[in-house]
Design goal:
The chain is α+β, with helices and mostly antiparallel strands. It has helices spanning 10-16, 24-31, 47-65, 93-102, 120-125, 176-186, 201-216, 227-230, and strands spanning 21-22, 73-78, 84-92, 138-143, 146-150, 155-159, 190-191, 233-234, 238-241. The radius of gyration is 21 Å and the shape is elongated.
Amino acid sequence: MKREWGLLKEDDYRLWDLKNEFSFEEAACLWFGVDPSEYPYYYGVPGETQRKIELMFDILKKAAEKGEIKGYKRFTYYDLSNAPVDASNILHRLGLRAYAESVVQKPLFIFPEERGQLSYQLQENYFCPPGTNWEDISFTLVNNAMVEIKTSKMKGRYTYHKIGMEDKRKGDSPKIIWELLKLFITSHGFITYENTYDPKLPETAKQLNKHLRTLFGISQSIYASHYKKEKGYRVRFKTYLSSNYNQSE
């Protein structure tokens, strides 16, 4: 059975682990967990993902040409008349890893230690360009199982399963951090002990912070200030309720 539109599985990643040099096309596809064999036709690959890959291709190309990716090599091939006929661009694994760290990204093909923390599907969905802040992102609660997420580069609706907030120990139930995210949205981005039922609010707030920072690749905390100062938690991202949101659904 063919995997879902070319997304890499763990065995695929281990195969790519044996490779230390990548073309721009390979690196851009792998950045989002997409098999490079899908390039450039992208059979079945969602249009949003295609645009992200093309954008990353341009970002990597410009960064390499400016010397921001160490180990970058360009080879030009000539015919018998000494006319250039083809060119090859090589990006080294260590150079790519250093560059990814500099822009606060952790693509799984060069960060194998991250593969056990979040599925590659999450990495694929939420690409934020370097320099993105939480203030640039909005969450709209559509219903009790779905949010609409909007950044400067994408907009989409996702259930708690898709953003890694499903508690698989309890079947189809969401994790407590999903409930906290919903509460932030319904409370206009600010909660205190007075409007939450969670007796372990500081710990749950810490877990939500870690999850969203990893999910979006943003190092900045999701909270605007220390909870002791505001006597609660205020998130940096924008929060909205859908016009047809029904809390009872």
